[in-house]
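From the methods appendix. Each design record in this collection lists the discretized structure first, followed by the designed amino acid sequence. Records were kept in a plain field format so they could be parsed without special tools. The example shown here is representative of the layout used throughout.

RECORD:
C-ALPHA CELLS (471 positions):
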C-alpha cells in the first residue's frame, strides 16, 4: 500500500462535500454490515472510519506494508515466482518473492490535469480535487473550478459558500439523477427497524441492489431502430431523460439560461450521472456563481481566458478534471512470460478475462481491472467481493492440484472480450459518442461491465479449470 493507511479513494479524496454516491447499506462489505449508518450516502470521514475499522476488525493491518510502492513485478518461468521491486517509505529499495500477485490499485487514483495551454503560467495556487490543499484559503477568494463531474458536483456547493465569487467551467453538462435524500440522515424509524426487526437490514440491502442496480439497467439498453439515438437510446432511456429534464427545469426555477446550460444533449446513462437533491442546481444559479460554458482557450498568469476572449481573473484554480482511469496498473512495470511487458502488450487497450486474469501473466490477479466498472449503479465493493471470491478459488485450485501457476488461455480471453465489447455497444455508454472516461485511447469501452451484477456474480463464483493452462 503506497499510502500510510487503508481507505484508498476515501483516504485520498478529502474535498469538501465528499460522500459516496451509492447508498451505504449496499456500499459496504457483506461480511461487515452496519445497522447504524448515519446517512443514506455517507460522508468521506464516515467511510474512511469504516474501512479503517474493517482493517482492524479482520486483523488486516499486520499483513499490510504501508508506504510501500510496488514499482516492478517480473515473472520467472523457471520457478513460477514473481519478483517484486518495492520502494519503501524511506526511499529504500527492496525485492520480494511471491507465488501470486493480487493487484488492488484501483482505477480512479491517478489525477489528470487537463492539457490546457498556459496551465503552468497561473501565478496563484491550484490543485486537483483528489489532492485537496487545505492550506489554500478559499474564503473570500475568487475561485475557478474546472469540470462538472461527480467530484466537482459535490464540492461546488461548499466552495461557493466559501468563495467571494465562484466560476465553474463546464465542458459537458452531467446528467443529474434527482436524489432527494442525497444529504439526508437515515431516519430514526429506519434505524430502529435495522437494529430490531430480524432480516430487515438484509432485505433492505437486497432491495437496494435489486431496484437500483439491476432495476435501472434496462433503461440503458439500446433499442434497435430507435429513431433519435442522439438524445436517447430506447424507450426506457427516453423516459428517464424526460423525468430528469422535468426535475432539472423545476430546479432551475424559471432561469431559462441556467436550464439551457445544464440540459445535456446526449443520452442519459451514457456517462456517469451525478446525484443531487437540488443544492447543486441552486448553487449554480446563485448570483455569486458563474457557470461558464464558453470553452477555455488558455490559462493566464491571473486566471482563464475563454474562446470568446473573456478574461476571468481568479485567485485559485481547482481542477475537478478526473483520473487517468484506463491506464490500468500504470506506473508499475509488469513483465510476464517470455519477457512480455504488460503495458506494451496492452498497447493502450487494457483487457483481461473477467477483468481479473491476463494471458501470459500467470498468477497475476487484478481487482477492479478492465471492464469491471459500473455506470448505472451498483457498488464497486460488490464487484471486489466477486473478484476476491474468484481469486481465492483460483488459488485454492492451485494448492489442491499441486500446480504452481495458472495462465489464462488466449482463446478464452479473446472470446470473452469480444462478447464484452459487443454487449457494451448495446448499452448507452457504448452507443453514445459523448466523451467519457469509460473509453480508452483506442476508442474501446475499457472500463465498464455491460451486464447485470448478478451475471458477474454467476461468472465469478468458481474458476473453470478449462479456462487456464496449468503450469
Ligand atoms: P470525471 O467524471 O472524469 O469528470 C471530469 C470533469 O472535468 C468533466 O466534467 C470533464 O468534462 C471536465 N474536464 C476534463 N478536462 C477538461 C478540460 N480540458 N476543460 C474543461 N473541462 C474538463 O471525474 P470526477 O468528477 O473526479 O469523477 C470520476 C469518477 O469517480 C466518477 O465518474 C465516479 O465514478 C467516481 N466518483 C464517485 C464519487 C462518489 O461515489 N461520491 C464522487 C466522485 C467521483 P467532460 O465531461 O467534457 O469530459
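DESIGN:
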Amino acid at each position: 500500500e503506497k499510502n500510510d493507511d487503508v481507505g484508498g479513494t476515501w483516504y485520498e479524496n478529502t474535498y469538501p462535500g465528499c460522500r459516496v454516491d451509492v447508498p451505504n447499506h449496499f456500499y459496504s462489505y457483506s461480511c461487515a454490515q452496519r445497522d447504524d449508518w448515519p446517512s443514506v450516502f455517507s460522508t468521506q470521514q464516515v467511510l474512511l472510519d469504516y474501512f479503517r475499522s474493517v482493517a482492524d476488525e479482520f486483523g488486516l493491518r499486520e499483513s499490510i506494508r504501508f508506504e510501500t510502492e510496488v514499482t516492478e513485478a517480473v515473472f520467472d518461468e523457471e520457478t513460477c515466482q514473481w519478483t517484486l521491486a518495492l520502494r519503501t517509505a524511506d526511499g529504500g529499495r527492496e525485492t520480494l518473492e511471491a507465488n501470486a500477485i493480487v493487484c488492488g490499485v484501483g482505477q480512479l487514483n491517478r489525477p489528470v490535469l487537463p492539457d490546457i495551454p498556459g496551465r503552468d503560467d497561473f501565478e496563484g495556487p491550484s490543485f486537483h480535487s483528489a489532492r485537496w490543499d487545505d492550506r489554500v484559503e478559499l474564503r473570500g477568494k475568487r475561485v475557478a473550478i474546472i469540470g462538472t463531474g461527480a467530484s466537482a458536483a459535490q464540492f461546488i456547493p461548499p466552495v461557493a459558500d466559501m468563495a467571494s465569487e465562484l466560476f465553474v467551467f463546464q465542458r459537458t453538462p452531467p446528467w443529474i439523477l434527482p436524489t432527494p435524500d442525497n444529504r439526508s440522515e437515515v431516519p430514526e424509524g429506519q434505524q430502529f427497524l435495522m437494529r430490531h426487526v430480524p432480516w430487515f437490514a438484509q432485505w433492505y440491502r437486497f432491495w437496494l441492489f435489486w431496484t437500483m442496480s439491476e432495476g435501472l439497467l434496462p433503461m440503458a439498453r439500446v433499442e434497435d431502430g430507435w429513431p433519435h439515438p442522439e438524445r436517447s437510446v430506447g424507450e426506457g432511456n427516453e423516459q428517464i431523460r424526460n423525468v430528469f429534464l422535468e426535475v432539472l427545469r423545476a430546479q432551475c426555477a424559471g432561469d431559462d439560461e441556467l436550464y439551457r446550460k445544464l440540459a445535456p444533449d446526449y443520452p442519459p446513462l451514457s456517462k456517469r450521472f451525478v446525484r443531487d437533491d437540488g443544492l447543486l442546481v441552486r448553487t449554480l444559479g446563485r448570483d455569486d456563481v458563474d457557470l461558464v460554458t464558453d470553452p477555455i482557450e488558455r490559462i493566464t498568469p491571473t486566471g482563464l481566458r475563454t474562446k470568446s476572449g473573456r478574461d476571468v481573473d481568479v485567485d485559485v484554480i481547482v481542477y475537478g478534471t478526473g483520473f487517468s482511469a484506463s491506464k490500468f496498473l500504470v506506473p508499475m512495470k509488469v513483465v510476464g512470460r517470455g519477457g512480455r511487458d504488460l503495458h506494451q502488450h496492452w498497447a493502450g487497450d487494457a483487457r483481461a478475462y473477467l477483468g481479473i486474469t491476463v494471458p501470459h501473466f500467470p498468477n497475476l490477479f487484478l481487482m477492479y481491472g478492465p471492464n469491471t466498472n459500473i455506470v448505472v449503479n451498483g457498488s464497486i465493493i460488490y464487484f471486489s467481493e466477486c473478484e476476491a471470491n474468484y481469486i481465492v478459488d483460483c488459488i485454492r485450485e492451485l494448492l489442491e492440484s499441486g500446480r504452481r501457476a495458472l495462465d489464462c488461455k488466449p482463446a478464452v480471453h479473446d472470446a470473452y472480450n469480444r462478447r464484452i465489447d459487443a454487449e457494451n455497444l448495446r448499452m448507452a455508454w457504448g452507443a453514445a459518442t459523448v466523451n467519457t472516461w469509460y473509453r480508452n485511447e483506442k476508442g474501446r469501452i475499457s472500463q465498464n461491465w455491460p451486464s447485470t451484477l448478478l451475471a458477474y456474480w454467476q461468472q465469478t463464483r468458481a474458476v473453470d479449470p478449462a479456462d487456464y493452462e496449468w503450469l
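APPENDIX NOTE: The chain has a mean pLDDT of 96.
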